[in-house]
Design a protein that fits this description.
single chain; about 475 residues; alpha/beta; FAD/NAD(P)-binding domain; D-Amino Acid Oxidase, Chain A, domain 2; 2 domains; 8-stranded mixed β-sheet; 16 helices; 18 strands; globular; binds flavin-adenine dinucleotide
Length: about 475
């Protein structure tokens, strides 16, 4: 970054652990907002890992603020104009078009996780973010003045704030929760695959995927769904299959499963699904889904260490929001740290900023997580007779409070008000301040792990004014 473009420096030192989308967003935004940031990542080198990932309009607008990034993401992004929902036997139930959503909230970026990640990683480097690869964080610590990490080999690094963005197996959770919290199985796993669409294009029964623009089709069956996507002008093909799985979880993107395992799950499904399987290289990625009820808190007692992204709140894929919410976290904490430093700042203000970050994010994320449970239940328990009469019942909910949201503008707008409540109630409890930020109409999504929707408890005291403010959307 040219000297003249540098933002005013806040003097706040931030360590970010992890270069997933949460960590990179936090780092880029901290750099943009004038904090001094160091990123630590255990991987020794960048690899194009993963397959399909989705960024909704709420996070796509954040990418567009980073010069040159959207232009690089666009040609790699799927641009299907609709998703078609079918029964597992192949009957078309609903075609949900994206045009309206796009006009209202803006475009999405859906594409290969590794390709997108490389673009964002390179952008972070280009703007001067310091990233130390091959640096595994073993432990976290904090005292009244500082927070820090211990890296493999024993080196201790300190800063004013540590942002733990190390995904579902977060080590930062121990200092935040006060105990070792092991990830738990969600009862579901996802088979995943990404390959060249060459063979798909040769078969008369599947070549339609590669013609006339990108395609996105989901087949729904009892406790299973299979989603296929063809993108990059018919070049690349990807599918994911979410299914019941009771195995012990060992959350890792390196886990593999033979194609035969997916064949068993999808036995008897639509012949088009069988044809896709015929063309799929073995083995598949076997991603054991980690999911948990919301953690009681994402921030350490000393208010200098914050969990963000999957470290704080793993998402079900059916929410289509995991990566977007991770990015929103990263932007929000960077804004809070800048707001706290206005007028000089002090160590005490940094602790307020971390508490404000949690208060601003907590209820929104909880509501967003819940949408994943709802869609999974709607799809996996679909009554196809009823769905034929009312296809809209299967529609993916694409709501304004979620997709029309601008995390950066919201945090800027809400910081002072949130801190005012925290000063009244004390930093030890963010409960009152969280209540300012319940998204409009979402105050019922409190009970996790049970039936979806509506059974609100304990939120009757949230004022209409607070909900209205929390639901503020931008178009
Ligand atoms: C390799 C990989 C591939 C993925 N592929 C997909 C995909 O295809 N589709 C999809 O929807 N989601 C995928 N995900 C998950 C998805 O990126 C996240 O669910 C979402 O983007 C939230 O990101 P996050 O930054 O919170 O966590 P993550 O993306 O999990 O990133 C966490 C980062 O922290 C690093 N890290 C972990 N522990 C330590 C430590 N102790 N010290 C230092 N660094 C550490 C990890 O190496 C990783 O880079 C993938 C994640 C990873 C890590």
């Amino acid at each position: 970054m040219a000297e003249s473009q540098k933002p005013a420096q806040t003097g706040i030192k931030v360590i970010v652990v992890g270069t997933g989308f949460a960590g990179l967003t936090a780092a880029i935004e901290c750099q943009r907002k004038g904090h001094q940031v160091l990123v630590l990542e255990k991987f020794p080198e960048l690899k194009l890992l993963g397959d399909i990932i989705s960024f909704g309009p709420n996070s796509s607008r954040l990418f567009r603020r980073w010069p040159g990034v959207a232009e690089k993401l666009e040609p790699l992004s799927m641009r299907a104009d609709a998703i078609t929902l079918k029964s597992w036997q192949g009957e078309t139930l609903l075609t949900q078009h994206w045009e309206g959503e796009q006009n209202e909230f803006g475009i999405r970026y859906d594409g290969h996780r590794g390709e997108f990640h490389e673009i964002v990683y390179n952008h972070a480097k280009e703007i001067g973010v310091e990233i130390r690869l091959g640096t595994r964080v073993e432990d976290y610590f904090e005292d009244a003045e500082k927070a820090g990490v211990v890296i493999k080999g024993g080196e201790r690094i300190t800063a004013d704030v540590v942002i733990a963005a190390e995904g579902v197996r977060s080590k930062g959770r121990k200092i935040v929760l006060g105990f070792e919290d092991k990830p738990k199985a969600s009862g579901y796993a996802v088979y995943r695959s990404w390959f060249s669409a060459e063979e798909i294009a040769k078969d008369p029964d599947t070549k339609h995927f590669t013609e006339g623009g990108d395609k996105h089709v989901a087949w729904l069956g009892p406790d299973v769904h299979f989603i296929a996507a063809c993108m990059k002008k018919g070049q690349d093909f990807s599918w994911v299959c979410t299914h019941k799985d009771e195995a012990d979880i060992e959350e890792s993107w390196q886990l593999e499963a033979p194609l035969e395992d997916a064949r068993k799950v999808l036995e008897g499904w639509d012949p088009v699904v069988q044809k896709i399987l015929d063309k799929t290289p073995s083995p598949l990625v076997d991603w054991k889904l980690v999911y948990r009820d919301p953690l009681p808190t994402w921030i350490s007692k000393g208010r200098r260490i914050a969990l963000i992204g999957d470290a704080a709140h793993p998402f079900l894929p059916t929410s289509i929001q995991g990566a977007s919410q991770a990015m929103e976290d990263g932007v929000t904490i960077a804004v809070c740290l800048r707001e706290c430093s206005r007028g000089g700042g002090s160590p005490e203000n940094v602790r307020e900023a971390v508490a404000a970050f949690e208060a601003i994010r907590y209820e929104r994320v909880k509501s967003a997580q819940k949408t994943g449970e709802q869609t999974r239940d709607i799809w996996h328990k679909a009554d196809f007779g009823a769905a034929k009469k009312d296809p809209d019942s299967l529609r993916l909910r694409r709501e304004g409070w979620l997709l029309g949201f601008d995390a950066e503008a919201y945090a800027e707008d809400q910081y002072a008000r949130t801190v005012a409540v925290l000063r009244r109630t004390g930093l030890a409890d963010t409960g009152e301040a969280r209540k300012l930020h319940v998204p409009e109409g979402q105050h019922g999504y409190l009970e996790f792990g049970g039936e979806s929707g509506g059974k609100g408890k304990g939120k009757g005291d949230v004022s209409a004014e607070a909900r209205a403010v929390a639901g503020t959307a931008v178009s």
